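A further point concerns the way the authors explain their paired sequence and structure data. Since the whole study asks how a given chain folds, the encoding of that fold should be made plain. A single example would do more here than another paragraph of explanation. An entry of this sort, consisting of the sequence and the corresponding backbone structure tokens, reads as follows:

_____
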Amino acid sequence: MMITARASFVRMSPRKLRIVARAIGSLKPLEAISQLKLMNQRAAEVMLDVFQQAMGNAKNNFKISPETLKTKSVQIEEGPRLKRRDAHAHGARFDAGIRRKRMAHVIVILEGKE
């Protein structure tokens, strides 16, 4: 049985989220949550929320014990970008004066026994 949880349009660079995702991708969900609580990164807070959401989905929707769950995958996908004008001199740089504020979609898939 697959349990999914997602956070869409997270206002954080996917690159920063992937660093945290790689660190916890192979851990069991309970271990991942304890590791995320100790990490001193803003991306860890986002991942913690999504993992807790997935654990809640497993408990409430499927009546699966948290101890029997495994992390199947943690996916970080790119979302849309907000473009902002930067009114400073940038020389002959391509797209001079454009700052891209990136967003990401976080998808956590857990696997459990029925």
Summary: The chain has one domain: 2-111. The longest strand covers residues 70-85.
